[in-house]
């Protein structure tokens, strides 16, 4: 992302000496003061309610603490326990699997729909479609998961009834390992794709018309045109959509918590669910913090990796 | 352009308006924001925490007003804590304790009796002894099994006010369709299987004979009890004679102790495996839903519309079915079938007194008040649970909601004196979690039972080794 | 097929228009289906809840379930709490994000890049990781089990700050430069040139904040322990009833009631909201 340059330097005719050699002008001091005042609420808030708690979590992860008794120092014992606990390890695997599948599906659905909606059609219809695809985003994930639990019921749910109409045998959503993961992903993507969809709509509108016309002249049509022309031009938007998508997917909680409670077995237990259960149900706050610290590290690593990869695949106009 | 301009200025005024409204609103509602307007928050009231879903606003009002009449000098605040289940509820109470705003009394179900008793609770023994004469009437009306389930290491921690035993609910419409009658009280597991098969045969593909929910109460554990085993090895703590000798006649004291001890996991035992294999075979035959199939609300809906024939539930379900619009004559209830035994499972609840309370005398008065017959009669008006007092189960009470054989609810305790509580050691949260988890896997097919139970055993052992 | 389209930048498709529109209609129906089912089921009796095929238009609609909601929980108090919390967070975030976004977009100062990175990095911190220490911080401030304890920690917003930065970056730079040549100081430039243009951007932040915090479940679940301090999503939990015996219709009626304000905000605010999200993905 390009940084805006300081306007005063350009607006004056004579070149100024390097800033280090002169005392800051009144204007610069004013700017710094203003910046300090403007940033204070956000930065202070972040320090008090995010940075300090993160440090607190790291410290807590070195203790045994059950709320009732005073904390006991544990050294690395909590981490040892975490690495020896198959449930925790499986939850990391589930979360990564969920992230890959959910984000891929979400981006694919959003991209296809965005391109299709951007095709020729009456404006009011386009607006109706855009609103419809965006609508699930305003609902509460917890409430809608309660609803989805009814709809995905194997024996009495609407989903299997609809599938039955087209001759598909009842799917054991929620009651088989693959079915449960699929249901959680579907419900999550159903609610989240609207966000990526709108990002793509914006990105598509930003692609100059001439690009398409040039592509058409070269004989590129349909799928090929999208693959070779639209996608590269959309790559900055894709990056934003996938970064936000991945960060959100790694923190998924409500959907599996309500739909499957992590089951069957551990097949849909996510890292955040493990943190919640360990801390607030089993009152092992130290262990829970250790899991949290590991999740935090994972999220940072994945995000860093993404930005690194993006240098090779993202084309800026 | 003018369009976007007017929109922009509209938005701007909107923002100003919002800011002004927020400022005014903040000032006007400062007390609400800081919770300073909650009566009894810091004024030395006796604070009682109850489970929200079980205690609606009307119930809270009833309790509060009734108490104020009896004890005008004691200020009372009832805090109905919203939680999806008991473990959620306990977590919230512990959060309150961590925040330094512990209540004096907490409504605790069997699931949490030992958790609270071990760490946080105060035994009621000295008050029970002191007020023995006053309490004689209460104990005479309450089955000793219920009282024993509220004891821990020889001391009594709660006076039970309600309970639910896992009996079998039967949809009469489905019975008729299958050409079957209500089974006799001493029906066996094989009778049960045969009934499910008949039901299945006489119905369409949208019907499942047996439906159950996967939880500590009413799920797989009643079947373990019926097959003469338990999740954890069960024994009784010594002591408790002080109570039994004072309040119960000799024939009812027989075999009572100072509360249950749940220790060694026994998930790899032969009977344990046999129980799971039986349930897995029911599922495989299409006679029974998988445990993740649904929750209570699902169940009320499908049972009342005849898409399920049989399900385990306690007295609380009479109220639930009535509320869902099921007429009293459309269902009935019978004991859980016999396997090696016909021991039933129950869960109860009552008020636990916290050690940190500075109003222990007042709290004890509340405990007695909450266990009085007139209090419970006013509270339990919709059959949302089974009262712990036998004398409250009357034909009158069940006339509107049904079922015809309502006597089964309390007779379960009398007829099967070994009927026992949910296995709930102080490590209950983890025990429950691993049970639910591995039950789901174990029942995916009969072949999956053995390996899943081995893992269940391992996880249970780990959980029990941990300090709760 | 013709290459010309009504608007610029539209993509030409090889698919027949009617097929495209039919496909989109099916997708839209799938997207809205669960919501339609929820509304329709809340208007039927619990016994009819699981009818297959479902009656989408109830033959005998009943508002009994809605009466049940009002009888079982104190809807007005819960709604008041939710409104207070959501509105104050929205206003607070508009202020913090507006100011910080402007600073990052248009002011020069030391540590700008690392500070911006810090703000963005908070998006990566799961709530569940920090909730226990946050609880302890609030305890030391005496704010546990108060609505303020929910509101104040939600004031800083990474996404809002990011959006506002994008928004200010999108405004023509010459406006501020011209004002500065006229001798306006940094504050004047902000106050008279850029701030008046920021209202639509702030509206986006406000709508997003409302949307998120109205539906918020986890923080209130942990932080609020007195019944009087519950927000609507927490209160709805008790509709599930003792041991899950609550009626489906009542549960769904509660879901519908809690949806209403979010939907209202969606209808009013969907255009700025859409524009906000749309612009967030456009690289500048």
TrEMBL record, chain A:
Protein name, entry field: Multiple sugar transport system permease protein
GO CC, alphabetical: plasma membrane
Residues annotated as domain ABC transmembrane type-1: 92-306
Keyword Cell membrane among record annotations: yes
GO BP: transmembrane transport
Pfam families: BPD_transp_1
Keyword match Lyase: no
Keywords per UniProt: Cell membrane, Membrane, Sugar transport, Transmembrane, Transmembrane helix, Transport
Cross-referenced PROSITE patterns: ABC_TM1
Region of interest: Disordered: 1-21
Family: Belongs to the binding-protein-dependent transport system permease family.
Transmembrane segments: 33-63, 96-116, 128-152, 180-201, 233-253, 285-307
Subcellular location: Cell membrane
Entry-linked InterPro entries: ABC_transporter_permease, MetI-like, MetI-like_sf
UniProt topology in membrane: Multi-pass membrane protein
Domain of life: Bacteria
From TrEMBL, chain B:
UniProt keyword annotations, A-Z: Signal, Transport
Keyword Signal appears in the UniProt entry: yes
Subcellular location, principal: other
SUPFAM superfamilies (alphabetical): Periplasmic binding protein-like II
Alphabetical list of InterPro entries matching this protein: Bact_solute-bd_prot1, SBP, TAT_signal
GO CC, alphabetical: cell envelope
Record flagged with keyword Repressor: no
Cell compartment(s), UniProt: Cell envelope
Similarity field: Belongs to the bacterial solute-binding protein 1 family.
Protein name per UniProt: ABC-type glycerol-3-phosphate transport system substrate-binding protein
Source organism of this protein record: Streptomyces calvus
UniProtKB/TrEMBL annotation, chain C:
One Pfam family recorded for the sequence: BPD_transp_1
Broad class of the protein's primary localization: membrane
Keyword Transmembrane helix: yes
Protein's UniProt keywords contain Membrane: yes
Signal peptide range: none
Stored PANTHER family: ABC TRANSPORTER PERMEASE PROTEIN MG189-RELATED, ABC TRANSPORTER PERMEASE PROTEIN MG189-RELATED-RELATED
Family: Belongs to the binding-protein-dependent transport system permease family.
Name recorded for this polypeptide: Multiple sugar transport system permease protein
């Amino acid at each position: 992302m390009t940084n805006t340059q300081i306007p005063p330097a350009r607006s004056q005719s004579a070149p100024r000496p390097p800033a280090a050699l002169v005392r800051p002008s009144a204007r610069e001091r004013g700017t710094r003061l203003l910046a300090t005042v403007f940033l204070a609420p956000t930065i202070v808030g972040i320090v008090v309610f995010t940075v300090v708690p993160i440090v607190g979590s790291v410290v807590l992860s070195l203790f045994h603490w059950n709320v009732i008794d005073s904390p006991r120092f544990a050294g690395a014992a909590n981490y040892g326990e975490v690495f020896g606990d198959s449930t925790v390890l499986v939850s990391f695997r589930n979360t990564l699997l969920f992230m890959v599948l959910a984000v891929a599906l979400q981006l694919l659905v959003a991209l296809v729909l965005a391109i299709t909606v951007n095709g020729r059609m009456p404006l009011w219809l386009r607006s109706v479609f855009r609103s419809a695809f965006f609508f699930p985003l305003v609902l509460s994930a917890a409430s809608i998961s309660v609803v989805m639990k009814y709809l995905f019921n194997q024996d009495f749910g609407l989903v299997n009834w609809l599938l039955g109409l087209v001759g598909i045998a009842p799917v054991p959503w929620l009651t088989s390992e693959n079915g449960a993961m699929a249901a959680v992903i579907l419900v999550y993507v159903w609610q989240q794709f609207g966000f990526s969809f709108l990002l793509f709509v914006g990105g598509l509108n930003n692609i100059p018309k001439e690009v398409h016309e040039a592509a058409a002249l070269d004989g590129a049509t349909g799928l090929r045109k999208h693959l070779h022309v639209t996608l590269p031009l959309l790559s900055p938007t894709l990056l934003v959509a996938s970064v936000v998508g991945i960060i959100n997917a790694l923190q998924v909680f409500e959907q599996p918590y309500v739909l499957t409670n992590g089951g069957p077995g551990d097949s849909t237990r996510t890292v955040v669910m493990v943190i919640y259960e360990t801390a607030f149900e089993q009152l092992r706050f130290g262990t829970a913090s250790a899991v949290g610290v590991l999740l935090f590290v994972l999220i940072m690593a994945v995000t860093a990796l993404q930005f690194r990869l993006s240098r090779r695949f993202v084309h800026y106009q | 352009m003018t369009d976007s301009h007017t929109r922009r200025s509209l938005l701007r005024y909107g923002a100003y308006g919002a800011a002004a409204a927020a400022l005014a609103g903040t000032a006007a509602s400062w007390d609400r924001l800081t919770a300073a307007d909650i009566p009894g928050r810091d004024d030395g009231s006796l604070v009682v925490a109850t489970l929200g879903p079980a205690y609606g606003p009307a119930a809270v009002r009833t309790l509060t007003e009734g108490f104020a009449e009896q004890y005008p000098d004691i200020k009372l605040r009832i805090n109905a804590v919203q939680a999806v289940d008991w473990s959620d509820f306990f977590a919230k109470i512990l959060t309150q304790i961590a925040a330094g705003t512990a209540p004096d009394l907490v409504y605790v179900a069997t699931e949490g009796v030992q958790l609270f008793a071990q760490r946080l609770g105060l035994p009621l023994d000295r008050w029970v002894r002191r007020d023995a004469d006053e309490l004689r009437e209460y104990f005479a009306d309450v089955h000793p099994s219920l009282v024993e389930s509220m004891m821990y290491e020889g001391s009594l921690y709660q006076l039970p006010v309600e309970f639910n035993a896992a009996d079998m609910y039967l949809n009469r419409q489905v019975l008729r369709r299958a050409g079957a009658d209500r089974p006799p009280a001493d029906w066996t597991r094989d009778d049960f299987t045969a009934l499910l098969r008949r039901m299945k045969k006489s119905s369409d593909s949208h019907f499942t004979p047996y439906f159950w929910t996967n939880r500590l109460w009413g799920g797989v554990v009643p079947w373990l009890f019926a097959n003469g085993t338990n999740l954890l090895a069960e024994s009784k703590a010594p002591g408790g004679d002080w109570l039994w000798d004072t309040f119960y006649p000799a024939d009812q004291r027989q075999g009572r102790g100072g509360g249950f001890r749940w220790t060694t996991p026994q998930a790899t035992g032969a009977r344990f495996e046999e129980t799971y294999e039986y349930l897995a075979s029911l599922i495989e035959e299409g006679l029974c839903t998988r445990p993740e199939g649904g929750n209570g609300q699902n169940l009320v809906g499908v049972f009342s519309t005849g898409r399920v024939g049989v399900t385990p539930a306690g007295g609380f379900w009479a109220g639930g079915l009535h509320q869902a619009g099921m007429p009293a004559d459309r269902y009935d209830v019978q004991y859980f079938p016999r396997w090696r035994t016909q021991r039933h499972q129950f869960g109860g609840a009552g008020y636990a007194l916290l050690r940190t309370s500075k109003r222990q005398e007042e709290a004890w008065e509340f405990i007695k008040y909450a266990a009085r017959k007139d209090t419970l009669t006013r509270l339990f008006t919709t059959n949302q649970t089974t009262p712990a007092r036998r004398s409250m189960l009357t034909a009158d009470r069940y006339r509107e909601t049904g079922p015809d054989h309502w006597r089964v609810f309390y007779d379960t305790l009398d007829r099967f004196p070994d009927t026992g509580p949910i296995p709930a050691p102080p490590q209950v949260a983890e025990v429950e979690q691993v049970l639910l988890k591995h039950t789901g896997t174990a029942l995916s097919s009969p072949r999956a039972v053995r390996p899943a139970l081995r893992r269940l055993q391992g996880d249970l052992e780990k959980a029990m080794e941990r300090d709760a | 097929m013709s290459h010309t389209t009504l608007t610029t930048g539209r993509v030409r498709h090889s698919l027949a228009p009617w097929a495209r529109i039919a496909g989109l209609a099916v997708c839209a129906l799938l997207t809205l289906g669960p919501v339609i089912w929820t509304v329709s089921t809340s208007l039927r009796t619990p016994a009819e809840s699981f009818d297959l095929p479902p009656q989408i238009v109830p033959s005998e609609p009943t508002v009994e379930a809605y009466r049940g909601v009002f009888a079982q929980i104190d809807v007005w108090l819960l709604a008041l709490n939710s409104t207070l919390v959501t509105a104050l967070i929205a206003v607070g975030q508009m202020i913090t994000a507006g100011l910080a976004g402007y600073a990052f977009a248009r002011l020069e100062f030391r540590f700008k890049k690392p500070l911006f990175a810090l703000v963005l990095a908070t998006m990566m911190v799961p709530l569940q990781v920090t909730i226990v220490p946050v609880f302890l911080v609030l305890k030391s401030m005496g704010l546990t089990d108060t609505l303020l304890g929910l509101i104040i920690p939600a004031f800083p917003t990474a996404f809002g700050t990011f959006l506002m930065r994008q928004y200010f970056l999108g405004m023509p730079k010459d406006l501020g430069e011209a004002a500065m040549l006229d001798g306006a100081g940094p504050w004047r430039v902000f106050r008279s040139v850029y701030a008046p243009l920021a209202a639509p951007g702030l509206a986006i932040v406000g709508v997003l904040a409302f949307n998120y915090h109205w539906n918020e479940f986890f923080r209130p679940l942990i932080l609020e322990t007195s019944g009087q301090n519950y927000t609507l999503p927490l209160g709805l939990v008790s509709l599930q009833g003792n041991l899950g015996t609550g009626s489906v219709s009542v549960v769904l009626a509660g879901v519908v009631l809690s949806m209403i304000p979010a939907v209202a905000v969606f209808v009013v605010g969907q255009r700025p909201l859409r524009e906000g999200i749309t612009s967030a993905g456009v690289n500048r």
